[in-house]
Amino acid sequence: MKILSAQQIRAADAYTIEHEPIRSVLLMERAAAECAGWMVHTFGENPPPFYIFCGMGNNGGDGLVIARLLKEHGFSVQAWLVHHSDKASEDNLANQPHYPELQHIHSLTDFPSIDAEGVVVDAIFGTGLSRPVEGWTAGIIHKINDQRGRHTIVSIDMPSGLMADKPAGHAPCIHARYTLSFQFYKLAFMLPENADRAGQVVILEIGLHPDYITQVQTRFHVVDKHIVRTIYQPRDPFAHKGTYGHSLIIAGSYGKMGAAVLSARACLRAGAGLVTAHIPRCGYEIMQTAVPEAMCETEDTQHINTHFHETVKDSYATIGIGPGIGTEAATAKALEKLLSQYEKPMVLDADALNIISTYPFLLHKIPHSSILTPHPKEFERLFGATEDQFERLELLSSKARELQLYILLKGRYSAMACPDGAVYFNPTGNPGMASAGSGDVLTGILTGLLCQGYTPKAALLLGAWLHGLAGDLAADDISEESLIAEDIINYLGQAWLNVRNT
Ligand SMILES: NC(=O)C1=CN([C@@H]2O[C@H](COP(=O)(O)OP(=O)(O)OC[C@H]3O[C@@H](n4cnc5c(N)ncnc54)[C@H](O)[C@@H]3O)[C@@H](O)[C@H]2O)[C@@H](O)CC1
Ligand SMILES: Nc1ncnc2c1ncn2[C@@H]1O[C@H](COP(=O)(O)OP(=O)(O)O)[C@@H](O)[C@H]1O
Ligand SMILES: [K+]
After folding, report:
1. Which residue lies with its CA nearest to atom 34 of ligand 1?
2. Does any ligand 1 atom lie closer than 6 A to the CB of residue 162?
3. Which ipTM value was assigned to this complex?
4. Given the DSSP bridges, would you call strands 50-54 and 415-417 parallel, antiparallel or unpaired?
5. Tens digits of per-residue pLDDT, 236-257?
6. Whether residue 410 has its Cβ less than 6 Å from ligand 2
7. Does any ligand 1 atom lie closer than 6 A to the CB of residue 366?
8. Exposed (0-12), middle (13-18) or buried (19+): which is 22, by Cβ within 10 Å?
9. DSSP tally for the chain: helices H, then strands E
10. 445 CA → ligand 2 middle, Å
11. Is the pLDDT of residue 139 over 90?
12. Domains of the chain, first to last
């Protein structure tokens, strides 16, 4: 699914109005009807009172229509027009007479007391907000946020105060429980700095013209079922174990053999034909016992990996390196040699990335189209700090282009930058996965997918999706709290079935 900028969304509205064709006030009616429908579906059993705050633009226009529709449905509704500007938009103005009970807010003192527990609808600003909200309108936003404990706040299209594709910093902004966003995710929703602003994002289809959506060029995308289904390749009925490649996992050190076990096991469950784990000697029995399906190659050194470059053969379809290997000088030396001699795309994670941040010239030795999977701290060590998360996204995308690598920046919506500069966000996954070892599993999955012949881009998008989906399926059964990395591996099979049957 594409992520459009505010300006592209305006163009999509205009294109739809001209080519469907539909009058703009009817497009507003259609969008608002989707919101009202969601509200009836969500709160309709025993409807609470609704308090609707409308702005002067088209977002406010949506609010006016929602107020009318909910009232017609028999809900208890009060609505206010927040006069942040002297002029209302045409469609806002057209809808005001259809809601005669409309009340007015001209200053902070007009803010009503809203007693009974209910739903506060925020339709003050949408994608038209061009600068941070100031003055008494900012005060209204704070007053609405003060209601959070007692009321459910639902924002229409955007939480008011947030801008679709610009940082809002510490500017006043509604903290919604739900955001009903029209047709597309907005870039701002993908960033952790806005996590407590948009709340749970619900995408509502409002029938914007498909021709516009197909032809519009955008760098940002959210991975969805359609993309994943296009990537998925069923296995060949005549396959043998050689068909799906031989991968090498270089991982683990004394005290961190779990990282190696998790990566090797995930690599197998992702579908690799053969897996060899390269580990220090201290891990031999652990690995052979925990992952009997994997072959094992050990170092002369007892506790760390130092000579893996000597055993690497071109016959390995790919390599996954990094989880738990430590950052000792001897390991760093071996990594440098490995990067100089192995030419196929590989997966680099964790300590492999930490070593590279200490010796940045190694970045240029990584085989093109390899996948790097830093978490935010590792990313900062590799590429430096940024002012805000929009700037960090730009840095991510420009580094992927400059180095011709795929870089996955981990998070709630992991951001995956491609060598052509495009960035895909992965929507699957949950906070239960914020526990030790989840990243080691991801390394194994990505390696397993590369190994069996998926292109690096396909492996990246499908791998992140499967990883998060397995986590979601596990959390559904055993809770987010008790989820551990091993569960992600155990539910990978169900995630595969889900992808196959979609
Ligand atoms: N036909 C369309 O264009 C449709 C638009 N829709 C709605 O329209 C919204 C966009 O509407 P608009 O473009 O009118 O914009 P908004 O309603 O988001 O806000 C624009 C209003 O806010 C004012 N404003 C902007 N920045 C401000 C600031 N910092 N402080 C105070 N006032 C400020 C502007 O002067 C204008 O009055 C979408 O988010 C969506 O809710 C939907 O109804 C779908 C159809
Ligand atoms: N709140 C969350 N929502 C979705 N995914 C998450 C969340 N927290 C963590 N994850 C995922 O779990 C993985 C954690 O990786 P990482 O921090 O490297 O863990 P570790 O180093 O312990 O293995 C990442 O893929 C990340 O996207
Ligand atoms: K809003």
Report:
1. 57
2. no
3. 0.90
4. unpaired
5. 999 987 899 999 999 999 999 9
6. yes
7. no
8. middle
9. 19, 17
10. 14
11. yes
12. 6-218 (3.40.50.10260), 225-240+323-501 (3.40.1190.20)
